[in-house]
Amino acid sequence: MRCLVVYSSKTGNTRAVAQAIHAIMPAGTALLPVQEAPAPHGYDLLCLGFWVTLGGPDPAMLAYMRRIEACTVGLFGTLGAYTDSPHADKVRQRALEAVAPHPTLGVFLCQGKIDPAHLARQAARPKEQQRHPMTEERRERIAVAATHPDAQDFAAAQAFFKEMLAKC
Ligand SMILES: Cc1cc2nc3c(=O)[nH]c(=O)nc-3n(C[C@H](O)[C@H](O)[C@H](O)COP(=O)(O)O)c2cc1C
After folding, report:
1. Which of 24, 42, 147, 150 sits at 20 to 30 Å (Cα–Cα) from 117?
2. DSSP code per residue over 54-101
3. What are phi and psi of 78, to 5 degrees?
4. Does 55 contact ligand 1 (Cβ within 6 A)?
5. Residue from 75, 89, 34 nearest 160 by CA
6. pLDDT for 83-140, tens place per residue?
7. Pocket test for ligand 1, best of 8, 9, 50, 53 (most atoms within 8 A of CB)
8. Which atom of ligand 1 is nearest to the CA of 53?
9. What are phi and psi of 157, to 5 degrees?
């Protein structure tokens, strides 16, 4: 079976999940950052990983997704929000829309620590210009995200993609 794992990652969270998924892929499966990935066609399973920005997959992965030709796709992503939040549901929906009409076997999401430089830039803005003002709930969510991806996330991602392989 021809499989390929491609990821886009700014600070390493999605790359770490991609590495975990790659470890359970059939021998000979390549793992590549999106900037070095081959054209997305001719694979039985294309595993695509993105980091979340503006409530959806990042622009580099979106551009790659637009190039897909006739492949079955498995998606994974990392985000700051909780995976059981309405925000995460929107991310899943946007990711599925981005690869449509190609068949998709699922979207795996886990939290990923948020770049402290990004948080510092946001905090430095005047309060009235902050898209996400700091609240107790947000502070806690950022602290929880800072512990991810963890060993459980890697194991969950592997289980998710093992099921995908079984369906292929
Ligand atoms: C510029 C920027 C925008 C972000 N936007 C979102 C967002 O809209 N929703 C969200 O849940 N997380 C958001 N995050 C958090 C990242 O998606 C999360 O930290 C992710 O794990 C980063 O993955 P990476 O380490 O592979 O780059 C944002 C982070 C940055 C730096």
Report:
1. 150
2. TTEE-HHHHHHHTT-BS--EEEEEEESS-TTSHHHHHHHHHHHHHHTT
3. -125, 145
4. yes
5. 75
6. 999 999 999 999 999 999 999 999 999 999 999 999 999 888 887 877 777 899 999 9
7. 53
8. 5
9. -65, -40
Judge contact between 55 and 12, C-beta under 8 A: no
Tell me which residue has tokens 């079955």. 72
Of 49, 8, 7, 47, the closest CA to residue 26 belongs to 47
* Nearest protein CA to atom 19 of ligand 1, as residue: 114
| CATH of residue 124 | 3.40.50.360
The rounded distance, in Å, linking the Cα atoms of 123 and 129 is 10
Q: How many domains does the chain have?
A: 1
pTM: 0.96
What is the span of the domain harbouring residue 105? 3-167
